[in-house]
Structure formats: structure tokens, C-alpha cells
What does this fold into?
Amino acid sequence: MIWCRFQRGETIGYGRVVDDEVIEVEGSPVTAPDYNPKETGTTYALGEVRLLAPIIPPMLYAAGPNHRGHVEGMARRRGAEPNYPKFPEPNFRSVHAIIGAEANIVVPADSTGAVQPEGQLAVVLGKHARKVSSRDEALDCVFGYTIGNDISERVWQGGDRTMFRGKNCDTFKPLGPWIVTGLPYDGFRIIVRHNGEVWEDFTSAEQIWDVPTWIMELSKYTTLHPGDVLWMGTQGADGDMFPGDTIEVEISGIGTLRNYIVAE
Amino acid sequence: MIWCRFQRGETIGYGRVVDDEVIEVEGSPVTAPDYNPKETGTTYALGEVRLLAPIIPPMLYAAGPNHRGHVEGMARRRGAEPNYPKFPEPNFRSVHAIIGAEANIVVPADSTGAVQPEGQLAVVLGKHARKVSSRDEALDCVFGYTIGNDISERVWQGGDRTMFRGKNCDTFKPLGPWIVTGLPYDGFRIIVRHNGEVWEDFTSAEQIWDVPTWIMELSKYTTLHPGDVLWMGTQGADGDMFPGDTIEVEISGIGTLRNYIVAE
It folds into this structure.
């Protein structure tokens, strides 16, 4: 199933997408009993609503370096040897930086210009869980999958003490266009297109640690909550984006997350 | 005024604390019109309720090194020269790690034992704001103040790639006991007591950057949201805590945040 969050006029709603229609439901499916929110009886044409990020999570986790290609590309950028992660440990991203599909990514006026995309598989968790001890139990915690673009200002990312402005400026966390349930965790192809040109084309099979491993590792130290989102990392280290550019992340079985670069 | 969040039986409520009573209100004061939620008509004796963390913020920001003493103490620990921060940039903490006063801090079974306190002033924001351009406007964004204890596993903090398990294990973020409004931002004395012995005794005047400066700097890149919480950093680098210990952070005009160390 495909679940979206949308805006129509002043109202924000949730819905199930079927063909070109949105069947409105009462509240988020993630926290509804059996993931099955009641229908309101209202249906909209998909073109009548503006899709928002499908969820604003309590915690947005980022796997960070979870593809060898990204570790190697970032090392080349620094002129250093690649430093592969030793075990899965996440960083956090600001939930206030989340925007939906078709929204603008705003480059801060004082940016150095090194604003780059990172197309990522995004895992939406659906359950409270701690000390998850098997891969099956981990996968049972997954509500569905969507797409993230971990926009990064590389000079700030490399030079600052924290990743606050390097990764978390307002609009730097595109998420969407919707959440798809029932997909296998290991069969995704991820394509990043800059102004229509393919910048990255990789698969979830190239992850250093896969979805169930990450869920088990996170839950060793923290309780997973329904609605938490985990971004699974990207493959490449790409070029800079400038105002006027269009950036797309397409993931097989999910859809395309398209956003536009604008100046502040 | 003093605002709390509490549990009584299965119910979670909010209230205003007056002497030894809690006057229950409808929902959080932070998001109520004019910070003035309606009273429900019910009053409890303070002893009848269990105080919870007064707020679960959308984003929990930590100033990190914001006192020279802390930068110097952590440098001595590493045998390195102190590396003072160049400008105010926050890190993020997990909101899932938040607990209230009188709750247990659980030391993970695989901890190295280097679990230490960091008593901190906690600023609760009350408004949406971006590009805050004056100190007066910044202070107008403050709803009130409470107390944080930034529990840190120093070996994990120093050796891991991220601060995930070093700072964000379940129960590692005590916050409370309540939020006090109407206090000046620069007049706080902060005392950390370990089993009754004073480990730290410092003031907010020793901060490298003060509350309005932090609010202005954060808002350069991110929109502040009502309920966001900013921890202002600590002075010392203290000793280890072990199961059976009691840790208290007292801040003048606010109260005392007391928690107990237990083994997993």
C-alpha cells in the first residue's frame, strides 16, 4: 500500500494512494491500530492535493557511511585514506529540516556553494521495540519505505565541529513522496539524477550493513518508536548543485523524490 | 510560574505547581495561546502525582563545549591541548533518552563504567522563529528554564564515530523536575552533587556564549519551534558514577533534578 500526508487549503491530512486518487484517512497509519486508520469517506484526485513529507518522525536517524563507495569518495575529497566504519552507529538529523517532494531546497546566503545530494533509502519504523534479537523481529518493526535526500554543505560538513549547518539547515532533508509498505528490504535500486543526468545508480545490496542489522544495533541502546525514520546511507560523493537545478532520487518500487534548488 | 508534566495512574497530565499543589491544565502550556492553558478544575497534592520530564521536545539541542572549564577538563582527560569552539554550533540528543526527576539512569550492561554527569541549564523555547536578529527578540522566544543532566559514557564518547551510545542510551537524558518561567537568563548557579558531595559549582555567567547568542545563532540556519529545548553546557569533567549512586543537579530558582544510577 502507498500512504501519503497531504495539504489541501489550510488542512493537513493523511491518505492511501490508489491509482490517481487519495483516499483520506483519520491520522497517520503508523500509529493506527494494525496500521489501519479509518477512512473519512472523502477521496481527492492526486492532482488536487500537495504532497507533504509523509511523516515527521520523533527521531530521524542517519546511517552515515553505509556504502563503501561513499566512504571512498569522501576520503578522495579530503585526500585521505578511506576510514570504513567499524560498527553501525547512527547520527541524528533535524526533523525541522524535513520537506516533501516538489518543495524547494534553499541554499543559505552564506553557503560556500558546495551543496550536494545524497539519495538514500528511508526506513519507517512502526513499533516500539528494544533489544531486537533476530532479523525477523527487526523486519517486523518496519512499517514501510520511502526516499530521503541528505542534502549536505560539504565545506561546513568537513570544517565544523558538528554537522548542524552542514546537514541540517531548513529544507536540507527532503523526504517522500510517500511511504510504500510490503516491499522486500533488500531489493532496491537507487538512482540520483541532477538536471536529468544520472549521478548515482546503486542498489541496497551494496550497503555495508543492511536494514535488519541496523534495527538490531540501534535497539541495543535505544527504544525504537513508531514513526522513527532511519536513512540507510548513499553510495557516491557527487557534484555541487546550484540555484535553478533540479535534483531527483528514484527508488524502485517507491517512486521519485524531486526537489528544486533555490537561493535564499 | 512553575509548570509540570505528571503521571497519575495511567493518565499523563500537565499542571501549574503552586506550593504543594498541582493545578491541572489542558495540555502543554508551551503550545497554549498566550502560554495560558485552560484549567481542568482538578487539583492534586504534589505528593499524589509522579513528575515526568516536563516536556518531550521536537528537537533537543546540546551546546556541548560552552564552558571553558569543560573544554579544559575533557582535554586533560585525552592528554591534549584544549580546543575551544570557534562559534556556537549545537549537537542533537535523542528525545527517546529523556527521563524525569527521581527516575533511574540505567548503565548498559556492556558499558566500560565511565558514566559521568553533566549538569546543565535547559532553555525551553516557546515560539516559531527564524533569523532572530536581536537579543531582546531572542529572549522573547524563551518560554522558561529547567534542568538537564547530559549523562555521558566517556569511553564511548571518545572512541566512537558518533555520540549515539556515548550520550543517547535510553535514560541518559534526565530533564526536570519542572519548567520555571519569568527568570533572568544570566543569573543561574548550577551545583552537581554526587551522593551528596559537591562535584561542580558554577554559574551561567561562565558560559562562553549566553542564551540569547545561542538562540540567534541557531535561528540563522533552522527554524525554532515551540517546545524545542537547548542545553547550555556544563563546567566540569567529573568522576564516574556506579549503580547505587545518587546524582543531583540543583539550579537556583528552578529546583533539583535527582536521579539514581542502576545497573541494566
